[in-house]
Amino acid sequence: MTASRSVLITGGNRGIGAAIAAAFVANGDKVAVTHRGASDLPDGVLGVQADVTDPESLDRAFTEVEAAHGPVEVLIANAGITNDQLLLRMSEKDFTDVIDVNLTGVFRSVKRAIKGMIRAKKGRIVLVSSVSGIYGAAGQVNYSASKAGLIGIARSLTRELASRGITTNVIMPGVVLTEMFDAVSDEVKAKYLADIPAGRFADATEIANVVRWLSSDEAAYISGALIPVDGGASMGH
Ligand code: NDP
């Protein structure tokens, strides 16, 4: 697989993002991760501080990565949050805060990344969505809307940029027990588990390996795709 590329992962200090970072490091790439002041980063990565809700901090982070590793050739838009509430109790702020990170944050990250990719006439973009984006989930009107929106971004961007050697794909992980699930009760986790044909939750490395492959030369002819990595829960969508 192509190695030594400049790779940037948003929210790569922990959870799925950290596993993705480790997969690219193992591939021999130059890996940078954004974080919001974390002291603990995956081994072998360059940490750059950025909040995806703040375009200036993102711009600074990209500039740092460009200086250290060269223009970003692979962008993994992974940073995301939940703020679950049934719609009756969901405030407008609960909704827009999640959209700001999960959807507008991806818009900002991708917009900044494509400048260099267009110049280089190559690039790989992978957006981290969720099964909730296509199936919905009670309490996740905000989160589901944000994750469904990523499919629109990837498909429109494919129409804009595929002819320039830039692919944009969406990965749809099933449940991975990261800190994102700390607030979810055992009862709800058991319900999720019952819907997974594989009979288990995912390991973050199983998501990371697919992201890495989608970012490789081998996947040059895949763009605008929605790839589930969910133990069969969505039946391939
Ligand atoms: P975690 O909560 O473990 O990690 C989230 C990451 O996003 C952290 O690095 C966090 O940084 C970062 N982040 C959050 N808000 C911002 C922000 N405003 N600016 C920059 N970075 C931010 O989540 P996961 O690893 O589980 O999730 C990673 C992605 O995978 C998310 O997009 C999530 O929606 C998606 N996903 C997760 C699933 C799961 O089962 N876990 C299933 C399907 C999709 P910080 O440490 O500073 O908070």
Characterise the protein shown here.
The chain has 237 residues and is an alpha/beta fold. It has a single domain (6-229), classed as 3-Layer(aba) Sandwich (Rossmann fold), CATH 3.40.50.720. Helices cover 43% and strands 15% of the residues. Strands 3-2-1-4-5-6-7 form a seven-stranded parallel β-sheet, sandwiched between helices. Helix 2 (55-69) runs parallel beside helix 3 (92-120). The chain is globular. The protein starts with 5 loop residues before the first strand and ends in an 8-residue tail after the last strand. The mean pLDDT is 96. The site of NADPH dihydro-nicotinamide-adenine-dinucleotide phosphate has 28 residues, from helix 1 and strand 2.
Q: Which helices and strands appear, and what pairs or packs with what?
A:
Blueprint: E1 6-9, H1 15-26, E2 30-35, E3 46-49, H2 55-69, E4 74-77, H3 92-120, E5 123-128, H4 132-135, H5 141-161, E6 166-173, H6 186-194, H7 204-214, E7 226-229
Parallel strand pairs: 1-2, 1-4, 2-3, 4-5, 5-6, 6-7
Helix pairs in contact: 1-7, 2-3, 3-5
Residues 10-11, 13-17, 34-36, 38, 51-53, 78-81, 101, 128, 130, 173, 175-176, 178-181 line the site of NADPH dihydro-nicotinamide-adenine-dinucleotide phosphate.
